[in-house]
Amino acid sequence: MSDDNPHSSRGSAGKSWLERIASIFTAEPQDISDLQDIISEAQMRNLIDTDTKSMLQGVLDVSSMRARDIMIPRSQMATIDIDDDVADMLPILLENNHSRYPVVNEDKDHIEGILLVKDLLHFALNPDNTDWHLRDLLRPAVIIPESKRVDALLKEFRQKRYHMAIVVDEYGGVSGLVTIEDILEQIVGEIEDEHDDEEEHDIKKMASRVFQVSALTPLDEFNETFGTSFDEEDADTIGGIVLHAFGHMPERGESIELNGLTFKVSKANSRRLVQLQVIRAKESVEAEDG
């Protein structure tokens, strides 16, 4: 007997990938390991692609993470002092390109609040606003313990509509900060904005001896700029040279000296180096100036 249903020809092809994954469940998964096996099997059967598998794995990873696992460490927090004026803030804003900053009083253990750059611009660029203090612009800082579950924190970020939390240790000292972007990057991978795209193609001089360099800068361009002679047969980019020298995937903040230059990792993810800070030796700068 013929099938008169006009939709029957679609078959399983019309199902969403979530429905198709569900169809391979032969029993309820008992633990995270079972779920990981199911996701891997779905990818091998071409029910999901590699990117989808990575995102699902990211969701599972986040469910077992704590704030301490993904926070930006205290030493790498970009902060503004409560007594800074606009001229003091501008270099910090331009170098970091963040939309919000913790504001501190004396040191990073004393967080006064969070400054949104849009709030600062509203006052700083309005000639009628002459009598204001940075303290007037601050929003309350959200404080969380290092042990805070990341999945619970993401839920709070969404429900309470804040984007940054200050992480403290058991003694109440500031140990770092977490943003909603940090959590989402654990799931979907690195989120790049227009500033990231711009950085990846530039060697920027930040000070007399300090440069901001994309890890993807071609090695011949790097050698020409810095007068170095890294072998182009060893790698195509300066990031490749630095990665080989480390011998492992370095984390943000790690540094190494090569050919009279100090390379500090300023941005990286689990897969690759993104941004490097390159510091020239003081002697070499003085020799050029002389």
What does this structure look like?
- The protein has helices spanning 17-22, 32-44, 50-62, 67-70, 86-96, 117-124, 150-160, 180-188, 194-199, 219-226, 238-246, 282-289; strands at 72-73, 80-81, 100-105, 107-116, 143-145, 164-168, 174-179, 203-205, 210-214, 255-258, 261-268, 273-280.
- By secondary structure, it is an alpha+beta fold.
- It has three domains: 17-62, no CATH class; 68-188, CBS-domain (Roll); 194-289, Uridine Diphospho-n-acetylenolpyruvylglucosamine Reductase, domain 3, CATH 3.30.465.
- A five-stranded antiparallel β-sheet has the order 8-9-12-11-10. It has a four-stranded mixed β-sheet with strand order 1-7-6-5. It has a three-stranded mixed β-sheet with strand order 2-3-4.
- Helix 2 packs antiparallel against helix 3 (50-62) and helix 3 packs across helix 8 (180-188).
- The termini are far apart.
- 19% of the residues are buried.
- Plays a role in the transport of magnesium and cobalt ions.
- This is Magnesium and cobalt efflux protein CorC.
Topology:
Elements: H1 17-22, H2 32-44, H3 50-62, H4 67-70, E1 72-73, E2 80-81, H5 86-96, E3 100-105, E4 107-116, H6 117-124, E5 143-145, H7 150-160, E6 164-168, E7 174-179, H8 180-188, H9 194-199, E8 203-205, E9 210-214, H10 219-226, H11 238-246, E10 255-258, E11 261-268, E12 273-280, H12 282-289
Parallel strand pairs: 2-3, 5-6
Antiparallel strand pairs: 1-7, 3-4, 6-7, 8-9, 9-12, 10-11, 11-12
Helix pairs in contact: 2-3, 3-8
> Low-confidence parts, pLDDT < 50 over ≥5 residues?
1-14, 194-200
| CATH architectural arrangement of the largest domain | Roll
Strand content: 15-25%
The oligomeric status of these chains comes to single chain
Total beta strands = 12
Binned, the helix content reads 25-40%
Number of contiguous helices: 12
Number of domains: 3
* N-to-C CA distance: 94 Å
For CATH, the homologous superfamily of the largest domain is named as CBS-domain
Shape: flat
Give the topology string: H per helix, E per strand. Answer: HHHHEEHEEHEHEEHHEEHHEEEH
Keywords: CBS domain, Cobalt, Magnesium, Repeat, Transport
Organism: Rheinheimera nanhaiensis E407-8
Protein name: Magnesium and cobalt efflux protein CorC
Domain CBS: 71-130, 137-194
